[in-house]
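Please, why this fold?
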Amino acid sequence: MNLRVAGRRQARQAFRVAIHATAVIDPQAELHPTVEVGPYAVIEAGVHLGEGCRVGPYVHLSGVLLAGARNTFGTGAVVGGAPQDLRFAGGPTRIRMGDDNCVREHVTVHRSNCLEEDTIVGSRNLLMAHCHLGHNAQIGNRVIIANGAQLGGHVVVEDRAFLSANCLVHQFVRIGTLSLMQGGSGISKDLPPYCIARGANGVCGLNVVGLRRAGLEADVRLELRRLYRILYRSGKGLKQALAAMDSMARSDWGRLFVEFVRTSRRGIVSERVVGWHAAEDGSDE
């Protein structure tokens, strides 16, 4: 037998081993030869899976799903379903996903409701079991969304944010870089970068632990602490607070904080006074 033909046959056999016999894959779906597909998975036309992706049992991938390399889809995940929008008129709307994402059991991610905008999931994100990303959501990189968290349509979550279990996020809300939502909290207003959401539309200080883990130096953390105090504790109106923050922001991190607040369309969450404040960081001052 020709060695080249034998090599191709072996490659096809190896590919078949990675696809369970009960999986249903549309011929128009595009899967890298290294993709693994588990029992009873359904992969529809328009799905593109990059190198090293793993599709678990009973997963349903549909719509136009453009996924990069090494993404994993846990048991029962549904990614690419039609948006839950009564105005949706159909069409090949999309989800774009980067690399190295972990989508756990029974997660749902809906594709966008229009051709002009995609649902986007960046890279190295962890979407824990039963969480939901609504249509047109924009998820950055290294974001963690814990079990049962629910994100409405058009929500923006910036890099390295952490949403704890059972959080609720209203449509069109923005969640800033390195912010954190405590378990069970809910917001219908924007959560500024580096802040901790508490309860209903509340904030209770800076995510100091997250800032340290991200490698921010003490002088930058002190700058952010002072900006937070101007915004939430100075008694200034928003316009006056932004003017004061502008004059104090020196680092890129500080300027990002100020710009996020300035460009908020929904308004920002309010401070909730509790017995302690995560913003208090004795090592910074």
Remarks:
- The mean pLDDT is 92.
- DSSP finds five helices and 28 strands in the chain.
- The helical segments are 3-18, 208-213, 218-233, 238-248, 252-262.
